[in-house]
């Protein structure tokens, strides 16, 4: 069949040339001459001395690396905070209101709250001169707080007393007076100041810091959860006790009829035994020989004819 194949296919079946033999370049392992094995004494002079050995390098662990990064971050933030504090001056702000004693500060605003919405909500306390809704310098998004300047200081005080905690667009706002230009040494929250113990700078007068407050709140939550867990456990135990009592009562009620039946059957058997003995004694003629001739009186078994 192969003679009928075309030459291009016959070339595939043609044998290849044999691999030429090449002598090895080196001797075989068993033909080589090697030096005999010796000790290490001849090489000790090449070893380094103890004073030439470099000190061991200590590798930083994962926990130490995390602590180092956190420490560096805190130092960097503290340095940046100091620079921001030196550059911060509320009196040189071009966007600030004209009179700080007529200005009201509103925080925790909804990010979708507009200036017209604020005007409608706070115009009920007096005539508003200007509204400054603070936005982020880089992104242009609202920061969640604003400054409202009234034309009269009495209107500002009325809004300060009555508008705190008011709900605007689903969020309860915090109302305060402007303290940047009215209180000496005041710093905003972003610079470590502000009111309350949740600020980075903390509150004066020995108040608790934010970390302590969070710890206390977490401990209160744990105690509350443990109390609720104990109440649930006591309720489950009481429920189990009631269930076992009801089940035992049901079992006793189920056992009572069987015991009553046994007692009644025993009582009947005793009454039969006693009644049988009396009847054998009352039966007349039962132990006497029967008179089949008809001459004697007929046997009155139950004593009915005794009186006749």
UniProtKB/TrEMBL annotation:
Regions annotated as coiled coil: none
Subcellular location: Nucleus speckle; Nucleus, Nucleoplasm
Domain RRM, chain residue ranges per copy: 102-180
Annotated Gene3D superfamilies: 3.30.70.330
GO biological process, one term: mRNA splicing, via spliceosome
Ranges of compositional bias, category Low complexity: 290-299
Compositional bias of kind Basic and acidic residues: 209-220, 247-276
CDD domains: RRM_snRNP70
InterPro entries for the chain: Nucleotide-bd_a/b_plait_sf, RBD_domain_sf, RRM_dom, snRNP70_RRM, U1_U11-U12_snRNP_70-35kDa, U1snRNP70_N
Keyword vocabulary terms for this entry: mRNA processing, Nucleus, Ribonucleoprotein, RNA-binding
PANTHER family: U1 SMALL NUCLEAR RIBONUCLEOPROTEIN 70 KD, U1 SMALL NUCLEAR RIBONUCLEOPROTEIN 70 KDA
Protein name: U1 small nuclear ribonucleoprotein 70 kDa
Organism of origin: Adineta steineri
